[in-house]
TrEMBL record:
Stretches assigned to the Bacteriophage CI repressor N-terminal domain: 6-67
The name this protein goes by in its record: Bacteriophage ci repressor
Ranges for region Disordered: 72-102
Stored InterPro entries: Cro/C1-type_HTH, Lambda_DNA-bd_dom_sf, LexA-like, LexA/Signal_pep-like_sf, Peptidase_S24_S26A/B/C, Phage_CI_N
Entry keyword set: DNA-binding, Transcription, Transcription regulation
Basic and acidic residues composition-biased segments: 72-84
Organism: Desulfoluna butyratoxydans
Amino acid sequence: MDSVKAIDRIMEATGLSSQRELADLLNVSVQSISNQKKKEGIPAPWLLTLCDSHDLNPKWIRDGVGPKYIGRDGKDGSACHQPEEESQQVKPPCVRQEGRIEEDENGELKVPVLEAPEVDHYDYIPMVEAQLSAGGGSFMASERIRDYYAFRKAFIANVATSVKKLILMRVSGESMEPEIRNGATVMIDLGRRHIKNNCIYALGLEDTIIIKELERIPGGRVRVISKNPQYPAYEADAKALRIIGQVIWGDRMYPI
């Protein structure tokens, strides 16, 4: 993705006239904008902010394809998709609050709820900064939370097992491209750990988390699939997989 063209699209769609105005909107420095023009892509928090504040479609920002705006037809569910009468009301895209995901004695992952006054129509989902530990068989106990991002309650109620089971994570690597791009932000439902064919899951593997499509095959085994043809699929024992949760949302909804 050409980040210069992407930033030009942002400026045109938002009506901003300077990098200073864009930096203020994104709550970053002007230097951060200049530096990003020399890199590939647009950071996920910027996309979420622009989605929330101006209904901008992340895919259109990145690639210049698809509708410029989303949420004005009510077909998607992230924070920018507000009721029509509220479409010009700017909601805070995120709330800064640190926390930590912990694992209880039964192996259940506990996601701390945002300690903030309830906002009508919105749930806040934590963005996890992965700092993974394989010690004691736990992959999630040392994962830290920095920010919470807003999503419409109606959307969450329709797609998630529980708002208390949702986390956001950034994807690193290209093995799932073009389905999920390097640097993309995805929503993971920790309550969905039963393998369904052709769905995408976050898996604990040694001291890291990988994101792969899974397909059950005979003999209690699972085919682990990357979308990038440069990364061949392989088989694994289903019982040996540590399934963290199912990827249910990114640039679009994924099969659930």
